[in-house]
Amino acid sequence: MSRIDAIFAALKADDRAALMPFVVAGAPSLETTATVLQGAEAAGADIVEVGFPFSDPIADGPVISAAMYEAIQSGTTPARVFDLVSRVRPDTGLGLVAMVSESIVHRIGAEKFIAKAAAAGFDGLLVPDVDLSVAAELSAITAGHDMAFTMLIAPTTSDERIGRITTLCRGFVYVLARTGLTGEQTGPPAVAARLATIRQHTDLPLAVGFGISTAEHVKQVTQTADAAIVGSALVRRMAAADDPAGAALKAMRELASGLQPAGRV
Amino acid sequence: MTTLSHVPDGFGRFGIFGGQYVPETLVAALEQLEDEYAKASADTAFTAQFDSLMREYVGRPTPLTFAARLTEHAGGARIYLKREDLAHTGAHKINNTIGQALLTKRMGKQRVIAETGAGQHGVATATACAYFGLKCEVYMGSEDARRQNLNVFRMKLLGAQVNLVEDGSRTLKDATNAAMRDWMESVEDTHYILGSVVGPHPFPVIVRDFQSVIGRECREQTQQMFGSLPHCVVACVGGGSNAAGIFYPFIDDHDTHLVGVEAGGSDSSFGHHAAPLAHGAPGVLHGSLSYVLQDESGQTAPVQSCSAGLDYPGVGPEHSYWKDAGRVEYTSVDDDEALSAFRLLAELEGIIPALETAHAVAEAVKRAASMSAEQHVVINCSGRGDKDVQEGMRLLKSRGRD
Fold first, then answer.
1. Which residue does chain A place closest to B289, by CA atoms?
2. Are residues B147 and B171 in contact, defined by beta-carbon separation less than 8 angstroms?
3. Which of B71, B173, B210, B269 is the most exposed place for a label (fewest CB within 10 A)?
4. How many helices (H) and strands (E) does chain A have?
5. Interface pTM, i.e. ipTM
6. Best residue in A52, A54, A58, A126 to probe B by mutation, most B CBs within 10 Å?
């Protein structure tokens, strides 16, 4: 059983949902990212999505784009992200998911990129801008390394396409809470009906992201979702802090307080 | 003879190139666009409306002009200019924006966004939106806005909002990122009028089809004027829309040599040019797989060209397909050669070309020189240079050539 599957199985046994923070590797430095990854489990995170900085991220809002720009400026390359993960891997039981543009995966080569990610200690892969016809190939290669493979479902994704996407996924499925970019919203996302539709296609855990920024949002989303993904809110707090790693871990503790301890509806 | 014109396939692929490398949020909009475009193409009322707008608003057909003094200067083949500079707004970009504005109306959307480099596509989009009464916002890198200040004012005059982009290199690629981000937020009521044969399927095919009016006219005009197809057609290539427009109707005419000219910038070292077909490798940028300039880990490379419209690290997927199939020859012309050609066409023909177009002029003169007087070369004179006079003056001055 892959680590991601094991984490969700354990959570299910506890009747608890997962907190899944997203960080940009190398923003503001790889040392910061290392500190966050080493402390995240104790701060209440179950799985961390580690974003590989890309020069032209079209799917990300201004907060994450700026963090990616900063990370590239500070010399973050895919090779250094792999080094970082191999360094922290022995210290943590977190699930680690590589979130990376197809521009990078294609350039390095899918086989090579995934082999390196697996060797470094990543447990899953998410390529948000992959062409669906290429996703099948990535899904097959990750399977060979016992890694999870996650794809996104948008509010506008057709039923037919949900079927095709969920067939390729392993580990969990990423459900976008609203149309648009990564960024915080003032109101909590309402997704129960959408999750019910998706559950007709798959038994995989459903992680909801985009627009989740407070413990209250986490609480509401995990009434029905299996995991809450927090991206921009965390990256923004890190960007504004003198001690970015400390700010990230503090934010995780707050957000984790919104997780349903038991008896989810 | 192979047929290369029956692309893309059902997955939006030109051979291995193209596709839809986009966030899931955009897929439904692209499917809607593909569907609407298929219906529109098959609807004679739609194509008739497009044709009549091309005639009565854009001023088509644009002439094919014999360039007598340029021919004499080159001392070889007879050189002709396909005069897209005479189309309304002064460049070929209007062909596509009128077509896509019609599609916008058809989809019932009220707002249009666009990216622009040199500003010609922004002006052409603002023009089409003014004509159809659509709300228009144009994203433009602040570095490009500096270089093309006149076009910024033109867009504003046409009622468009110009959003300056301060990210990254503050040029066309960054404006494209910003437009795509906007579209992800606004896809319900907004159409993104992409300006070149780049981006995710179906944009490369839509833009190529609307621009193909150039090549269709050119084929007819050459047959009327000199009784045969041209031996050689030369066009500049940034994203590649004017080139795709003039090349596509000639693709299955294997006796017509097609030459695409990329921006050679200051030199051929990494970061100093904008020639992905010459120096790049297949990679993913802005939604499709095509030749692209990247570093070894997939980050987009910096690019450089005197011409804002060619200053782009990617190129349309169909050009990549034509390159690998050996159907089109791609080469590059550097800033100095382009500036010389900018001046040459002005002095010899009384036509100030866009700096983009000047790249094609430079290459065509070299080609013509080595050809016989019975042969014919057509240059796609893709745009007029009024927008470039300030920047041209600055660049010539900095080289002591003013």
1. A103
2. no
3. B269
4. 12, 9
5. 0.94
6. A58
Of A65, A77, A161, the CB nearest to B297: A77
Please say whether the beta carbons of B170 and B141 come within 8 A.
Answer: yes
pLDDT mean over B1-24: 90
Gap from B285 CA to chain A (nearest CA, Å): 6
Longest Cα–Cα distance of chain B, Å, equals 56
CB contact under 8 A, B21 and A131: yes
* Beta-carbon separation of B187 and A179 below 8 A: yes
The structure's pTM equals 0.95
B1 — pLDDT class (breaks 50, 70, 90):
very low
Chain A residues whose beta carbon lies within 8 Å of the beta carbon of residue B283: 103, 106-107
Chain A residues in contact with B11 by the CB 8 A cut-off are 133
Asked if the C-beta of A84 comes within 8 angstroms of chain B's C-beta atoms, the answer is no
Say how many residues make up chain B: 402
What is the DSSP pairing of strand B13-14 with strand A227-230?
unpaired
Closest chain B CA to residue A76:
B297
Tell me: pLDDT of A182 over 70: no
- Residue by residue, DSSP assigns A48-89 as EEEEPP-SS-SSS-HHHHHHHHHHHHTT--HHHHHHHHHHHG
The stretch A246-256 carries a mean pLDDT of 97
DSSP character string of A91-153: G---EEEEE--HHHHHHH-HHHHHHHHHHHT--EEE-TT--HHHHHHHHHHHHHTT-EEE-EE
Alpha-carbon gap: A238 to the closest alpha carbon of chain B (Å) = 20
* Residue B275, pLDDT above cutoff 90: yes
- The confidence score (pLDDT) of residue A263 equals 41
The answer to whether residue A156 neighbours chain B at the CB level (below 8 Å) is yes
pLDDT tens for B192-211 read 999 999 999 999 999 999 99
CB contact under 8 Å between A128 and B180, yes or no, is no
Q: What is the mean pLDDT of residues B5-27?
A: 94
Is A101 in Cβ contact with B184 (below 8 Å)? no
Beta-carbon contacts of A42 under 8 Å, excluding residues fewer than 6 positions away, are: A249
Tell me which H or E stretch contains A180. Answer: none
Amino acid present at B173: K
Find all residues with CB under 8 Å of B108, minimum gap 6, and list them: none
pLDDT in tens, B217-226: 999 999 999 9
Whether residues A55 and B188 touch (CB distance < 8 A) is answered with no
* pLDDT of A42: 97
